[in-house]
Amino acid sequence: MNTTWQREDVALNFLDERRRNLPYGEDQLQLLLRVVRHFRSNVSRIVDLGCGDGVVARTLLTGFPTASAVLIDHSLPMLDRAVTSMAGYDVDIVHHDLADDIRAVTGVSAVDVIASAYAIHHLPSDRKRALYTEIFEALTPGGVFVNVEHVASGSTRTEALWDTLCIENLVADTSRNVDDVTAEYHSRPDKADNILESVETQTAWLRDIGFVDVDCYFKFFELAVFGGAKPK
């Protein structure tokens, strides 16, 4: 799948500036770890989908230090950063597009935890749902899936509220002119890659596929943490 995330400037801008300005970013990662620990006491193998620099894998490996992880991304600049950031961890770093079947990398019934952050929303809706089915099949019985994700707002007015919040955070962090930040925010090249779906729709898909204990564990405007477990 061709996206702007294969561009070095886009990938590094997100890693070095925009991600740290996401509200409750660290809280979402710690909640991901808490959810996994609640549903799964023993974790041997983790898969991080759309891994970026590996922040999700690092969070999980901190909680499960004897586990190993497979990190998957289609962006070579992201993977280059992951190689550096994951030095010292037991990981495999794989160049793979989430538009293609992940079971070629994960295997079937072979993974205890599959997690993702801010990646799956770049896929068309039919591919999102197909990927969730592949995730279900890749998990071991009792395995857990958690998605830290950018989701659709309920209305254009709440979307505008979210955009204003993001712009204010960037202005406060960078001390740049608000007009410049606003123009850059709305014209950013990766915006066209966002194919947002509501969290309600996506959790309904998970239930239909067969996941249990499905829930939205956190939501703040267009940020959500949701997932479920494969039945034992």
Describe the SSE topology.
Layout: H1 8-18, H2 25-39, E1 45-49, H3 55-63, E2 68-73, H4 76-85, E3 91-95, H5 103-106, E4 111-117, H6 125-138, E5 139-150, H7 156-174, H8 178-187, H9 199-209, E6 212-220, E7 223-229
Parallel strand pairs: 1-2, 1-4, 2-3, 4-5
Antiparallel strand pairs: 5-7, 6-7
Number of helical regions: 9
Give a quick account of the main beta sheet: strands, pairing sense, barrel closure.
7 strands, mixed
How do the strands line up in the largest sheet?
Answer: 3-2-1-4-5-7-6
Distance between the termini: 34 Å
CATH class descriptor name: Alpha Beta
Secondary-structure-based class equals alpha/beta
Please provide a written account of the structure.
With 232 residues, the protein is of the alpha/beta class. The chain has one domain: Rossmann fold, CATH 3.40.50.150. Helix content is 44%, strand content 22%. The protein has nine helices and seven strands, in the order ααβαβαβαβαβαααββ. Strands 3-2-1-4-5-7-6 form a seven-stranded mixed β-sheet, sandwiched between helices. α6 links the parallel β4 and β5. α2 (25-39) crosses α3 and α7 (156-174) packs across α8. The chain is globular and about 50 Å long. The mean pLDDT is 95.
